[in-house]
Design goal:
Keywords: Cytoplasm, Gluconeogenesis, Glycolysis, Isomerase. 44% of the residues lie in helices and 15% in strands. By secondary structure, it is of the alpha/beta class. The protein has a single domain, classed as TIM Barrel (Alpha-Beta Barrel). The chain has an eight-stranded parallel beta sheet. The longest helix is centred in the last third of the chain and has 19 residues. It is globular, with a radius of gyration of 17 Å. The N and C termini lie close together (10 Å).
Length: 255
């Protein structure tokens, strides 16, 4: 982390977990544990939990995010939710392009870009996920692939809009597998993302960009990962489902 340039961001991605009762209980437990944290704390919950989460976090230091949004404002898109619908509820953040969306639901770099622009137009702050598969890393194309994903995701995003974008580096081989990139690997790729943004928007804009690491960050490895100068926080999966574990990561980012 580089606190002189950026405020760290720890975001929990609950994925498809927790009904409303469980959501309220978890957030009630979490709120006092992250009070006055020296980082931004976000919890990204299933659509059905959004109203519960917004009510449970009112007056706390926890921000609320969704896990996806569509790129159209309205229309015949059964099962989808627009960015405007989320903004109208009071949602502030939205995760876009997660590897599970790409793997199971046909997301592409192009649709991630469309969703990113829609989110920004609605006043949301997108957390845009990029990352390579294991075979990509073994073939030595991680840097090229992640740079390409970053460039496409930001196509037609203005420099002003970029100030509301977070990019999360999520090596696909380290999501939900228990495997974690080494701190050096994570820092290197987050540096590639920042350099790519610098080539598009200039060094000053890149220096302000928050780049998270999102591959199985937990209480045990958070300190080492966050010590990397280009790792500005984490997009946390499994550890975000337990208040104590998530709070420990927040504490690491608050040092």
């Amino acid at each position: 982390m580089n606190r002189d340039l950026r405020t760290p961001v720890i975001a929990g991605n609950w994925k498809m977990n927790n009904d409303r009762t469980a959501a309220k209980a978890l957030l009630s437990d979490l709120a006092p544990l992250v009070k006055d944290a020296a980082c931004t704390v976000i919890t990204c919950v299933p659509f059905t939990d959004l109203e519960t989460a917004l009510a449970a976090t009112a007056g706390t230091d926890i921000k609320v995010g969704a896990q996806n949004c569509h790129f159209e404002k309205s229309g015949a898109y059964t099962g989808e939710v627009s960015a405007d619908m989320l903004a109208e509820m009071g949602v502030e953040y939205v995760v876009l392009g997660h590897s599970e969306r790409r793997q199971y639901f046909g997301e592409t770099d192009v649709t991630v870009n469309l969703r990113t622009k829609a989110a920004l137009a609605a006043g949301l702050k997108p957390i845009v996920c990029v990352g390579e598969h294991l075979e990509d890393r073994e073939q030595g194309v991680t840097a090229e692939l992640v740079a390409l994903q970053t460039k496409i995701a930001l196509l037609d995003v203005t420099a002003e809009q970029l100030q509301n974008v977070i990019i999360a580096y999520e090596p696909v081989w380290a999501i939900g597998t228990g495997k974690t990139a080494t701190a050096e690997q994570a820092g290197e790729v987050c540096g590639v993302i920042r350099a790519t943004v610098a080539s598009l928007y200039g060094k000053e804009a890149a220096d302000k960009l928050v780049v998270q690491y999102g591959g199985s960050m937990n209480a045990g490895n958070a300190d080492e990962l966050l010590a990397q100068p280009d790792v500005d926080g984490g997009l946390i999966g499994g550890a975000s489902l337990k208040a104590d574990a998530f709070a420990q990561i927040v504490a690491a980012a608050s040092k």
